Structures are given as C-alpha cells and as structure tokens.
Amino acid sequence: MKQIVDFKLVEKRDFGRSVLLRLRSGQSLPEMLPGQFVQVRVDGSPNTYLRRPISIHDVDSAQNEISLMVQRVGEGTRHLADMREGHLISIVLPLGNGFTLPKIGERILLVGGGIGIAPLFYFAKVLNAKDIRPTLLLGGKSESDLLRLNDYRQFGETFVTTEDGSLGEKGFVTMHSVWNEKQFDKVYVCGPKPMMKAVAKLAAEKGVWCEVSLENLMACGLGACLCCVEDTIDGNVCVCKEGPVFNTRRLKW
C-alpha cells in the first residue's frame, strides 16, 4: 500500500557525482519489493516543482530505514545530494512493480550499468535471504562509477567491466567473458537504455528469459501524467504504473 512517509536523513556517504542517503522513519514501513521506486519531495529548491523518482537501493525493515543512491544530474537531484544529516524528507512509497523472483536452483545473472546498479543491491540481498546467490555483472565508464563494489561482492560472484579498462575487463557488459563461460536461466538488467537493449538482445540470442528496469522520465509516479509511456506489444503503457520492470518479450525493442 502506498504511503507518504517523512524520513530523517541519518547518514550520507558522498561518492563525488553520487551520494548514498540512509533515511529513517519513526513509523513502520510498508513492504517494499526489489525493483520498486519512491517519489521524493525536494524542499528548498525553487525550480523543482515535482517529486523525483529514485529506485530503492536498500531496505532495513527492523530499523524502518531505506537507502537511496542519488546521482547529481539536475537541480532537484543536486539539492537532494547536498542535504545535510538531520534533514526531513517526504517520500511516497512504494511505487511500481518489482522484479519477478526466481526459483531456488535457477542460475541468475544481475546486470547493472552506471547508477543502474543501485536497485540490484536490494535485489541481491533479498535473493540471498531466499538462499539464492546470483552472479553479478557490473559495468561503468571507469572504476569510479562502480560504487560499493565490495558490498555487492558479499551477495554473489561479481564481475566487472569498464570502458576505459581501469577495472575488470575492458569494454561493455555485453562483451564480458562470463557470457561464454557460464549459463543462466534468468537475466535481470538495469542501466542506460542502450545498454539494456544490448543485453536484452544478447539474452534473446541465447534463449534466456530477461527482465529490465526502465528509467523513463517520470513526473507523478502514479500513471496520471502519461509522460513515462513505453511502447509494448500491449500498446502504450505508463512505466511508473505497469513497470518499471518489464519482461523484454513485452517491449517493442
């Protein structure tokens, strides 16, 4: 059930272009699924009128906490990233539909690119709690784009690509040798759209089931404003309401 919840910023870790915000509420939180997102109100930013959609990076239900990874892109996200500990933040959550949980025994690959690795952290954590250890393939332009890499490694075997070759194999995630060395039953992807399309194409060529988490521009997060529409085999649908996670068989890619 969607709720509007006030959170206090209890910890901020600055990674340069991106920051990790740990937020705590004084009330119990609703169930949140990997792949869902939140809408964050940006106070004190006169040119930011709408809430900002941000994927759920982590959840600690026992502490009534969530964590968000925010990348400094526009005025709204820069303002969020620059908030100080103790600041109160109004958030609507949870929104959208999450990833389809795999079955125990299935071979799982989680693929993330850039800030798109953020929702895979909570997903991998939930999979581990269900005795599923996925393989992770994380890519970025350079080593500095791969945030919390050692924390991701606790959840499963982790492979890396960087475009400049500063860490892992040089190139894109679709070029990594793991695709030829291992077989997978399901692939889950989040990152820039060109990357997701390339991974979806590769998965289709290998006959592997694939889900992607789209990052279309959103305003309301509730399916009312129609600005995040995606063309599917079922017609145009709102990503915020029917997604953000879609099986690639539904997408006209």
Give a structural overview.
- By secondary structure, this protein is α/β, with parallel strands linked by helices.
- The chain folds into two domains: 3-95, Elongation Factor Tu (Ef-tu), domain 3 (Beta Barrel); 108-250, 3-Layer(aba) Sandwich (Rossmann fold).
- Helix content is 18%, strand content 34%.
- It has helices at residues 75-81, 118-129, 149-153, 178-181, 193-205, 239-242; strands spanning 3-14, 18-25, 37-40, 52-55, 58-60, 65-71, 88-95, 108-113, 135-140, 158-162, 169-170, 186-190, 209-213, 229-232, 235-238, 245-247.
- The chain has a seven-stranded antiparallel beta sheet.
- β5 and β6 (65-71) form a beta hairpin.
- The longest helix has 13 residues, at 193-205.
- The chain is globular, with a radius of gyration of 18 Å.
- 42% of the residues are buried.
- The model has no long low-confidence stretch (mean pLDDT 96).
Describe the structure concisely:
It is built from six helices and 16 strands.
Helix/strand layout:
Elements (H helix, E strand, L loop, with lengths): L2 E12 L3 E8 L11 E4 L11 E4 L2 E3 L4 E7 L3 H7 L6 E8 L12 E6 L4 H12 L5 E6 L8 H5 L4 E5 L6 E2 L7 H4 L4 E5 L2 H13 L3 E5 L15 E4 L2 E4 H4 L2 E3 L6
Parallel strand pairs: 8-9, 8-12, 9-10, 10-11, 12-13
Antiparallel strand pairs: 1-2, 1-7, 2-6, 3-4, 3-7, 5-6, 13-16, 14-15
**Helix share, percent:** 10-25%
Rg, rounded, reads 18 Å
Average pLDDT metric? 96
Biggest sheet features: 7 strands, antiparallel
Keywords summarizing the entry:
Rossmann fold, 253 residues, 34% strand, 18% helix, Elongation Factor Tu (Ef-tu), domain 3, 2 domains, alpha/beta
